[in-house]
Amino acid sequence: MSLWLYGLNALRIYTLCVAVFAFFELVAWKIVPAKDSPFNWNSITFALLFAMLLPYNISWWIIVVGGFIIIIIGKKLFGGLGAYPVHPVLLGFAILQVSWPSRLDYTAAATSLNWPVKMIEPMRLVKTLGSEAENLYHIQDLLLGKQVAGIGNAMVIFLFLGGILLLISRQITWHIPAGFILGTFLTGWIVHLINPVQFASPLFQLLTGSTIFAAFFLATDHTTSPVNRIPMLIYGFLGGLLLVLVRSFSVYYDGIAFVILLINLFNPLIDRITPRVIGLEEREYA
Amino acid sequence: MINPFNYFFLQDSIPRYPTWEKDIHFLEDPEYVVIPLEYPGRILYKPTIKIGEQVYQKQIIGRSSLGHCIHASVSGVVKDILAIWTARSFHVPAILIHRNDKKAITVGEIFEQTGFAFESTNPVDKLKILGVISPWNRPGRWQEEADKSFPEVKKIVIKGLDEEPSIFLNGLIIQNYTIKISRGLSYLSNLAPRAEIILAVSNHNRTWATDQFGSLAKVQGIGQNYKDRISQLMVSKLTETNIPTISAYRTHGIAVLSAEYLLNLVDALDGKSPFIHKFLTVAGSEMKEPKTIKIPIGMTIRQVLKALDISDKTFGRILVGGPMQGIAQYTDLTPLTKTSHGLYLMSQQELPLETNLTCTSCGRCTRMCPVNLQVHLVGRYAEYGMFTDTTAYHTEACVECGLCGFVCPAHRPLIQLIQMCKKYCGITNEYPQQQAECGATSALERWELNFQNAASLDSGAAAGITHESVAVRT
Fold it and tell me: For the whole prediction, is pTM greater than 0.90?
């Protein structure tokens, strides 16, 4: 899909990301051999997730710096796969976004594209125009990914299909995506009810930016998400809630990186809500 | 061939066998049997025979401190008594008997050995002498157990079904030996007149079983799902009592017996035979239908596979038990004992290429756990040696069903890690193992080699075995 929309530039970013991430992973493994080997596809997954968040005209050195932050600092320094406290991809993305905001500006990147849609990031326009901005976008365009965003994080329909595939293959469970989407929708609805002029409608919140991408691909990362069912729902809901709050009341238009990093930090606390163990002695309950 | 989809599409279902062989096959007596003398945590027998002695089938060859007996499953000459590793990886003494064509003795003669008369002995003692450990007396691992008194048996649960998805033995037994099972049920109601007898059967057998045994026991149907059949949880549900996992059923006034046990009970109380034959189901991914067979106790896996004509090229690993709780065997010379209910032959494709990868906290184990343990945390604590920290997560509640390891995409030995935690923290219903180091892994192999070279065996000096080297702990 990225190739269809962005042409060879998307291929360039994907291949560069994969190469850089694999290189850093191999280097890290050569220096400190660990059980988390470079051949478990984890760094490739990270590379693809990272690439999907990037604007299509990103410089090569941003990817190299991002790869270093994600693999070496975000992942390996914390102990590799299964041990990092926050999602490395989003840690790297957040650092880059703070360090070089102009390089990761989707709207600025999209100026050279000539699509028959409004070439401004939807949430950005909402910030300035209020919910009127919604009328400038067509829902089909938003669903198909014809909106200003990273090369792969806004193709709502296709990401949704990918999420369904993950669900069928049992790589993820339905709790986190459901919680996330529900959280976004409910909070977006409440915010919209309070001030319908200033804030976008809940459906618009769902269809723009990285909401679906985050719900299915970023928030569901095994290591940084809870494992019990009720905590997973709470975690997802919290993610959706924070997403709407960040979009509505902060300077960031999407802010997905900060939202996921925040809920990642909540994970150990939420995961203490565990079901009661069956088959203990009676005095345990007394 | 490795199927790449196996790595992406994670399996969540347990192997199911839609069909299985409905007949029970009787295998011929093997050339030799190896009879373990200890079932750790339960019973320890002292041999009552000497090396070189002729024994007859059904003859008593060992006795525990509380008078329980173990019997020769074939007639033959005792060639050796030495420590071996059993199917459950315990290091125990065992007797090796080489078969010859001498006839079996009768139950009357067994009782002559013990000095009792069959008719005048009470039923519980009869069971003791005929090798059937009843819930009314302690097995006799330690002497002091005799003094402990238990509450009266209020409920008896009879398992007419099998936990493991590849084992069909109890289900077949209640169908093939209906009359004997009815007799067994009436014996039980005589032994424990006030107890409520519950017969658990598979759902598809339920109406049939109600017709057959409805007057003798309360028939309960259990679903096909493995989670419903896990013994401890099933018994808790059927008897409506909370039985902590670390305590025995008997301390709650509940006895749990299997259909196979009923057969042995009937045989013993009728004076027909002691417990010397074992039913077991042989299954495997390469086999079309699981086969249930009857073997003399102490037959080795190699002999069973040879008798069934299964080539060792069709499987990659042997499990004693089923695919969920079975224990992988180091050698196919392991003898099958009273506690081996099945053989599962894993094919080469079923074996994971890589095992024990990093835990990614995906939590499939924790969500799958039937007793709601935080398995992923316990596994990690155990991996880094922090065993004492796991007590906060109640590892003692683990029923060792094996579901966590089954669903783990990283193929981590979770059940073994939990067992290590339990052992380390001393929360286990097995007695502490203090077993001496010795070159026991070679005992089985030596016997097999000796058997191939019969001349050196008869000289008795093979591999330096002397009567003095035989040391059995008491």
Answer: no
